[in-house]
Amino acid sequence: MGLYGIMNTSVSGMDAQSNKLSTVADNISNADTVGYKRYETAFSSLVGSGGNSSYQSGIVNTTVVQSVRQQGAFNFTSSGTDLAINGNGFFQVEDSQGGTYYTRAGDFVLDKNGQMVNSSGYKLLSEGGTPVTVDLSTPVWQASSQGELGVNLASGTAAHPSEDSNANPPVPAPGLPDNYDHKTSISTFDQNGNPVKIDVFYTKVEQGADEAGNVNGSKWMVQAADAEGLDKTVLTPPATRFELEFTGDGKLAPTSDTDFVFKVPNGGNVTLDLSNTVTAGQKFSVSEVDVDGYRPSKIQNVRIESDGRVFGIYGSSKEKLLDQIQIVNFSNPDGLQAKSGNIYAATDASGDPAVGFPGDNGFGSLFSGAVEGSNVDLASELTKMVQSQRAYSANTKVFNASSELLQELNNLR
Fold first, then answer.
1. 131-152 b/e (C-beta count within 10 Å ≥ 16 → b)
2. Backbone angles phi, psi at 383, to 5 degrees
3. Whole-model pTM?
4. Which of 65, 124, 160, 256 is 20 to 30 A off residue 176, Cα-Cα?
């Protein structure tokens, strides 16, 4: 029984080293696979029995585990749809049959339907478990609704008392097109995405002074008109004319309203924030202009933030929030079941998936323009290959030795 036991032990050793070489071969062949996690072969002994004067050799068992927790190095690219997770988490993806899986392979591209698909053909899922989809063909536009305009009004301007705007019917306020002090223009967009140039007029209507003749405040009327309109129609109702009130030092009074509302022809109302308006010096100047809205255009590019928000960049250089990517975490990622295509399925050992946004507590952040490489160390794998080769060879010699001893035993007369 001893010689047969030795043969069985050496055979188990060859099987174990063969398993190890299989994992080494798999790791080396996937050294450049995006998001690949290397396999490790763990050895354990099953001891035989025997007394003090004899020993029955046992066998060696192997267990293959995958180092899913260990993150690979980032490889940076020029594509904004390439994604990598820094820290905990997996991309939630869907196959062609609607099955849900998990992966770290973030080499996504937009397919013909505008869906983000990785190199293995799996669709990236967003909030709500639906595929991230970018509409590449339909033009998008936005009418103007709000903006900011900051100017410096010349403080030495003489006041032009206006007609009574509270009369019944209201008396039109002055300022269009001749009786005004300053004018600037802003660009807006109507409900069809057509550009509309708006002129904004400033007229000083009141100058305050104390008993000593020192300036202690002023009031300016603000009006808006269609710059291309032939009659220069005022776009703000005269009965609710808008005024800015300043203190003696040229700053807006705390009680002054700063939300200037006017209408855009063939559009809605635009609220213009004038809180950065001051009156100082002798020259008029514009310090800030920013109005939302953009003309019809198609998506030219996609930008993805570290929290998973997906923005479409249009031909008008405007951006629009399209979707938000969620990632999934597990209490024991090493318990996931590996599937073909560099994906994983949840198991009892991995625990239930926890869904969150990148950057949330317990979830890694998202990198755009990068993919996670394999966590295989080629130098380490080559070393393991040599060690396994030598161990396999040694086991064959033990088998040959026990075989020769058995032959000698059979030759006894």
1. bbbbeeeeebbbbbbebbbbbb
2. -65, -45
3. 0.68
4. 256
